[in-house]
Design goal:
- By secondary structure, this protein is of the alpha+beta class.
- 23% of the residues lie in helices and 36% in strands.
- The strands form four sheets. It has a six-stranded mixed beta sheet with strand order 6-7-8-3-9-10, with helices on both faces.
- Helix 4 packs across helix 5.
Length: 354
């Protein structure tokens, strides 16, 4: 069995006819991690995945798996396997034939292949499906078959290119749990591409947020969500209100910043007079007078409400014209249309780097 290996990219770039798809990307991933490359279409995440698999060669930079420089190594020789978005199953082969295809190409004995295929199908919850035709399987089952086909080769690095995009919401969430369970049981490194923020938060040990070919932010999902570094990451992973302001006072790692909703105190290091941006997470905002550990944001006139199950997504306008977003329990929203006081937790104020 191939052991999970460290993954490392060193200043990797990819250009197509003068257009930069990936721009000077570097990161290292410890063995046995579940990594999610997250970003909008055109952000470069799929190109990075393709370079990891050897399907695309970097214009510059190097790719390492373990101690090996695999930058110029063809896909067939890399300790990797890929689950593609369209699954790429062979309709003329049975489930077992699809799962064992890679092993048969390597010349493994039929009896050994059968044993490995049965084990892989059990791992993905399809025990006994081997003889079934591909046309007799559902979309969710085909996703599992593609996953079994990749895992049966025992790769050090499993690459997943938006593997859940074709599934409905319920099945997608079920497969998120399955992928995480399999990754932990195998202790392998998974690299998963998606544009779905909730999916990234649900499965990742490490989230890499990409935009325009570069890394905007990178870290554990809780850190990237709760303390985003840039405007893009604050608004792509979740939602935020971003307030522009000017530093009025700076001392001991804390800043007093004049903003459209008053003076706010936030952790950070800037000079007096600097222009800064502060993100407010909507979950940290509530209606009412500010209490201990909170700061007042003035008053808010509600302009819109959307019921989203356990919370209301509320938009409103402050006295100075700024627009603010809050996610609050339905019973806490004022019944009156009059402007109401609003407050934010200290921990919900985030000084952005850009």
């Amino acid at each position: 069995m191939s052991a999970s290996a460290e993954l490392r990219l060193e200043r990797v770039s990819k250009r197509y006819d003068g257009v930069t798809a990936v721009d000077d990307v570097s990161f290292a991933v410890p063995p046995g991690s579940y990594v999610v490359l997250l970003g909008p279409s055109g952000s470069g995440k799929t190109t990075v995945l393709s370079m990891l698999g050897g399907f695309t060669s970097p214009t510059e930079g190097r790719v390492f798996i373990g101690a090996d420089d695999v930058t110029a190594m063809p896909p067939a020789l890399r300790p990797t396997a890929t689950v593609f978005q369209d699954y790429a199953l062979f309709p003329h082969l049975s489930v077992a034939g699809n799962v064992g295809f890679g092993l048969s190409v390597r010349g493994m004995a039929k009896r050994a292949i059968a044993g490995r295929v049965d084990e892989a199908l059990r791992l993905v919850g399809l025990d006994g499906f081997g003889p079934r035709a591909i046309g007799a399987t559902s979309g969710g089952q085909r996703q599992r078959i593609a996953l079994a086909r990749a895992l049966v080769t025992e790769p050090a690095l499993l690459l997943l290119d938006e593997p859940l995009g074709a599934l409905d919401l319920r099945l997608r969430r079920q497969m998120q749990d399955e992928l995480r369970r399999i990754q932990r049981s195998q202790a392998r490194t998974f690299v998963h591409v998606t544009h779905d923020q909730e999916e990234a938060m649900a499965i990742a040990d490490l989230v890499v947020i990409m935009n325009r070919g570069r890394i905007e932010d990178m870290g554990p999902p809780d850190r990237v969500y709760e303390r985003p570094r840039t405007r893009f990451s604050a608004n792509f992973l979740g939602e935020s209100t971003v307030l522009e302001g000017t530093v009025a006072k700076a001392a001991d790692g804390r800043l007093a910043v004049d903003t459209p909703c008053g003076r706010l105190v936030v952790e950070g290091n800037r000079a007096r007079g600097d222009s800064v941006a502060i993100a407010l997470r909507p979950e940290a905002v509530r209606f009412g007078v500010a209490g201990p550990g909170e700061q007042a944001l003035g008053v808010l006139r509600i302009t819109g409400q959307v019921f989203q199950g356990s919370f209301l997504r509320v938009t409103g306008t402050g006295a100075s014209g700024f627009t603010l977003l809050a996610k609050v329990a339905p019973h806490t929203v004022p019944a009156s249309s009059d402007p109401a006081p609003i407050a934010v937790r200290d921990s919900g104020l985030i000084l952005l780097e850009d």
